[in-house]
Amino acid sequence: MLSALHRVEQNLNQVILGKQQQIRLALCCLLAEGHLLLEDLPGMGKTTLAHALAKALGLNYKRVQFTNDLLPGDLLGMNIYDTRSAQFYFQPGPIFSQVLLADEINRASPKTQSALLEAMEERQVSIDGETRVLQQPFFVIATQNPLFHTGTSALPESQLDRFLFRISLGFPDKAAELQLLQDEQFGSRLHLLSEPLLPAQLLALQQQVPKITIQPALLEYILNLVQASRDNKSQLPLSPRAAKAIVRAAKAMAFLHGREFVTADDVQHVFPFVAEHRLNPQSVAGDFSISNTILQSTVCHL
Predict the structure, then answer these.
(1) Does 205 map to a domain?
(2) Which of 43, 54, 63, 131 gets the most CB atoms within 10 Å of its CB?
(3) Are residues 253 and 149 in the same domain?
(4) DSSP notation for 45-114
């Protein structure tokens, strides 16, 4: 099944050109059962990446355009009264999907942003006192524009903490952009995707990630990284949830590399993407100054 996942990765690299690292990180995030925050300028391929992931993995996909007038009920769904039957029936919202693209999440009101919290953490939502379980796997990909763009409002720290990774796609390199310009097919390259993974296969892969072993010395290293963030009072500290997220992400990265154990390289690879948006919520995606400083000042004793 891992070979099938690598085939999916190769297919995604045909759709999103020149972004091998971002695609691997997105798959790593999904394997670790986390959620992904994409921050970048408009037109960089954030929506295409979300749609391509859903299609390549055989998951049902819904997109919600977040605006300042979007209400929580528009996202979660609501009970509607049917006058003919004199009964209420539930109309599910787009959150009842396996891949939810929350497009431009920082254009919505804080109340609507917070409506995602229970769903992202608990994989369920409460509507009118009734709890409804979401489909599995459940993966939220949220996109946001940089905070200097008009009409944006910052995500609160509690919301940012629900995202395992924050990544930026960035501009494609010259060769990739030239290939895009030469493409005679107007629009996206989603038609190039083939042989999607089955949802049951993805669930089975996710269940393999916790079985990846990690040495006590590496757990100590992760604790030292977390403690280093707490010693510096000029930034937000990493929480125990963040520490667990680093372990989970490192295991998923090791699994993607076909290993049954975590290495220090796995921890160092995922750490900036897990930590930076927690350490400095106002930082720009792709700026890893704080997390890199912590990595450079913390020694791994193996």
Answers:
(1) no
(2) 54
(3) no
(4) SHHHHHHHHHHHTT--EEEEE--TT--HHHHHEEEEEETTTTEEEEEE-TTSSSEEEEETGGGS-HHHHH
Question: How many whole angstroms separate alpha carbon 119 and alpha carbon 96?
Answer: 10
Instruction: Give the chain's domain count.
Output: 2
Averaged pLDDT for residues 39-45:
80
Which structural domain, as residue segments, surrounds residue 223?
A: 212-302
Residues 125 and 251 in one domain: no
Whether the upstream peptide bond of residue 42 has omega within 30° of 0, thus cis, is: no
Is 240 exposed, middle or buried (CB count within 10 Å of its CB: 0-12, 13-18, 19+)?
Answer: exposed
In a domain? residue 41: yes
Interior angle at CA 207, CA 262 and CA 201, nearest 5: 115
The β-bridge relationship of strands 77-82 and 139-144 is unpaired
The pLDDT tens digits of the residues spanning 264-297 come to 999 999 999 999 999 988 888 888 999 999 999 9
Same domain (yes/no): 72, 189: yes
Structure tokens at 11: 């297919």
Q: What is the tens place of the pLDDT at every residue in 206-263? A: 999 999 999 999 999 999 999 999 998 778 899 999 999 999 999 999 999 999 999 9
| CB neighbour class for 43 (10 Å; exposed up to 12, middle 13-18, buried from 19) | exposed
- Do 188 and 247 belong to one domain? no
243 shares a domain with 122: no
Q: How far apart are the C-alpha atoms of 160 and 62, rounded to whole Å?
A: 21
The two three-digit tokens of residue 160, written as one number: 């940012």
Name the 3-class secondary structure at 19.
coil
Q: What are the tokens at 17?
A: 């050109």
Final residue of a structural domain among 199, 228, 262: 199
Looking at the structure, tell me whether residues 234 and 102 fall in a common domain.
no
- The more confident residue out of 109 and 296 is 296
Burial 258-295 (b: 16+ CB within 10 A, else e): eeeebbeebbbbbbbbbbbbbbbbebebeebebbeebb
> Do 169 and 41 sit in the same domain of this protein?
yes
